[in-house]
């Protein structure tokens, strides 16, 4: 994984796990790999993954069973909410970026419509 120096690594890993949930690579009820396994996968310190797992649990995305591990919460609404949350973040970042180029709302809509037409 390529890390963006402007965003804390633990947040980038959280977003990667959320994306895996949204696109079905991780399904509700799935057991997450151990912290050590994930630390090796993401090439980070296990303490970073510990924080990731704590944040995922605090956000009600996962839950922990003592002695068994961490699991994706079995809640279809959570997946839909994650999808909407991540889409909103992408759109907000896009709007902020394109407005910094001097585009107004009408121009932004025109660019999006043109691109959607091209991608049909």
Automatic annotation (TrEMBL):
Listed Pfam families: GntR
InterPro entries in the record: Tscrpt_reg_HTH_GntR, WH-like_DNA-bd_sf, WH_DNA-bd_sf
HTH gntR-type domain boundaries: 7-75
Transmembrane feature ranges: none
Keywords of this entry: DNA-binding, Transcription, Transcription regulation
UniProt key word Amino-acid biosynthesis: no
Keyword tRNA-binding set for record: no
Superkingdom: Bacteria
Protein name, as recorded: GntR family transcriptional regulator
Source organism per UniProt: Clostridium neuense
């Amino acid at each position: 994984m390529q890390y963006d120096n402007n965003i804390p690594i633990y947040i980038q890993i959280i977003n990667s796990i959320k994306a895996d949930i949204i696109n079905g690579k991780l399904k509700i009820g799935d057991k997450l790999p151990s912290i050590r396994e994930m630390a090796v996968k993401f090439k980070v310190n296990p303490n970073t993954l510990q924080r990731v797992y704590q944040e995922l649990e605090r956000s009600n995305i996962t839950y922990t069973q003592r002695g068994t591990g961490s699991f994706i919460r079995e809640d279809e609404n959570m997946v839909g909410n994650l999808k909407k949350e991540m889409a909103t973040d992408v759109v907000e970042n896009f709007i902020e970026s394109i407005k910094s180029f001097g585009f107004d709302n009408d121009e932004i809509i025109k660019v999006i419509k043109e691109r959607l037409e091209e991608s049909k």
